[in-house]
Amino acid sequence: MNFNPNELILEKIRAVEEYDPATNELTGRYTQIEEPSLKTSADATEVTDSMGATIQTFYNAQKGTFDFTNSLFSLDLAASQYGSDKVVATDDKKIIMPVSEVITIGADHTAVLKYVPVGTAGAEVKYVKVINENNTFGETYEVSATAGEGKFTIDAATKTITLPEGVTGRVFVNYEKESSAAVQVVKKTDSVPEVKTLLIHAIFHDPCNQNLVYAGVIRCPRAQIDPSSTELSLKADGKHAASYVLNKEYCSDDSRLFDILISED
Q1: What is the pLDDT of residue 203?
Q2: Which residue positions in the chain have pLDDT lower than 50?
Q3: How far apart are CA 31 and CA 47, in angstroms?
Q4: Could you tell me the pTM of the whole model?
Q5: Alpha carbons 194 and 76: distance in angstroms, whole number
Q6: Are strands 54-70 and 240-246 parallel, antiparallel or unpaired?
Q7: pLDDT at position 1
Q8: Looking at residue 86, what is its pLDDT?
Q9: What is the rounded distance in angstroms from the CA atom of residue 163 to the CA atom of residue 108?
Q10: What's the 3-state SS for 28-84?
Q11: What are the DSSP calls for 212-229, one per residue?
């Protein structure tokens, strides 16, 4: 007997995968899927008679959308939304990271940074601000090759800032460091999301025997993230939403937007 299901229980979408349509290389995978939705739409053109009654309606420019929310913030998804790549640092290709510190000034008028600062030699830190006892900012000091009033010196190798005598309390320092254990995602105004192939993996159950589990895939050959409105929640309980526009391949005779595939095994 052929496998020919009709009504099924859709348990969940277990994963959404992005592939480069030219190379079939996996470029992103998202596994914490909430509120997935697959929609289609078309532009309607009505043919009417002299009284305005509809004779026939033609539907053109059919397209689809696939929306979902990932429960967790995804760097891969953000890179796809911003039309960029996630850069992974290595020992040979480090990423520059900004650092802000509040440091207690020692008895010898020095403040020791947590990391080795990078930048212009002798001026890796350009300014520091003293923090008053009431947590307001006090005097600003500028880097100098030699000690002097309103100046500080820096020894990047030892991560040490030396302030003038008499300066006590705490100091606010902003600088940059190199890291071989970091990632970076950049959003540029001239970049748009690339077209991808989507595989939307689903789990189905037979309604008459829920122990029968079927694997399903919704395949979207040409999907592009909609960049017209991308919101990234910056709250602990925030979610990461994404919306894809599904189109047919313009230069192909195949007008397929997506196909739904379900297997018994």
Answers
A1: 96
A2: none
A3: 46
A4: 0.84
A5: 13
A6: antiparallel
A7: 67
A8: 94
A9: 9
A10: EEECCEEEEEEEEEEEEEEEECCCCCEEEEEEEEEEEEEEEEECCCCHHHHHHHCCC
A11: EEEEEEEEEEEEEE--SS
